[in-house]
Write a structure and sequence with these properties.
single chain; 304 residues; alpha/beta; 40% helix; globular
Length: 304
């Protein structure tokens, strides 16, 4: 296979997932169908679900339509934590872990420990229910024929894991693992190893696109590394010195010869996504804003 085009879908909660689908549909409306153009799709955090949708073969406009439907009560990986574990406390713990971390692996290992610590409170029944909810959101339960990666973190070692169709892991398990937010949902057990959300290491994990001539990055959080408004998972600290922030990853790809295009939310999209991107009520306005932005940015997406 010629490694020509990689599509990187960064994490961003419920709003970020909706914005991403909107941008992809907007690009397609303007004549750039990333579903067809991408030789590889990489999904991180909640947007791993969007990656599976993009790889499903469903037309972008058809992917967008259900996102524009009235919001439903929160379920799955974005539902509120159990009683006694309010979101403010969870995010405060995450920021404390980020402030104490000395490296990307150190951060991921500590976040994994937090997730493992929380498993006793969340319980095995919650884990089973969550896997079923993730499965219900996927258009297909099998890996697509065309290459796709779901980023996750080994909760025991803090190491990045790139699940794909050759990893021997079911797609449902890969997405359940890659979207497991420490402290709010259980870590996900695959063959005795537990995993957490791939967004802990990097909101984008764009370096997984190494070797591709063209890389298109959709980053709902805009590559920011500092604290974000209260209530946002990606607000944990990451040091640019670690090389896991978007700017460093894009620089590394360009040094290798890749042409990299990064699309981040514009002013209208940021306003639509609000300050709590985990809020399902942001989905419709975020998707609409993303669709408009995708049409506007289509002229930037050209390939070598």
């Amino acid at each position: 296979m010629v490694k020509k085009v990689a599509l990187v879908l960064g994490g961003g909660g419920s709003a970020g997932q909706a914005w991403t689908i909107g941008v992809i549909a907007g690009l397609a409306e303007a004549g750039i169908d990333m579903n067809e153009a991408a030789d590889l799709v990489i999904g991180t955090s909640s947007v791993a679900t969007a990656a599976a949708q993009v790889r499903s073969g469903i037309r972008p406009a058809e992917l967008l339509a259900p996102v524009l439907s009235p919001p439903v009560p929160p379920v799955g990986q974005n539902r509120p934590p159990p009683p006694g574990r309010p979101m403010a406390a969870v995010y405060e713990r995450m920021r404390a872990i980020g402030a104490a971390a000395t490296s990307a692996v150190d951060l991921c290992r500590a976040m994994g420990a937090f997730g493992l610590e929380s498993d006793a409170t969340l319980g095995p029944t919650t884990a089973e229910q969550r896997r079923a909810m993730v499965a219900a959101r996927l258009p297909h339960k099998q890996w697509p024929e065309r290459p796709m990666i779901v980023a996750a973190i080994n909760a025991h070692t803090g190491e990045l894991v790139a699940f794909d169709r050759d990893s021997g892991v079911d797609l449902v398990d890969a997405v359940t693992a890659g979207t497991a937010l420490p402290g709010t949902v259980p870590t996900h057990n695959i063959n005795g190893t537990r995993y957490i959300n791939g967004g802990v290491r990097s909101a984008e994990n764009a370096d997984l696109a190494s070797g591709y001539a063209n890389v298109v990055v959709l980053s709902p959080f805009g590559g920011r590394t500092g604290p974000l408004p209260a209530g946002q998972f990606e607000g944990i600290r990451r040091s640019p010195e670690w090389g896991t922030d978007l700017e460093s990853q894009v620089e590394g790809l360009r040094k290798q010869g890749s042409r990299v295009v990064v699309i981040t939310p514009d002013a209208n999209s940021r306003a639509a996504m609000g300050t709590n991107q985990m809020d399902h009520a942001t989905r419709i306005p975020a998707a609409r804003a993303g669709f408009a932005q995708g049409k506007q940015k289509a002229d930037r997406v050209t390939f070598l």
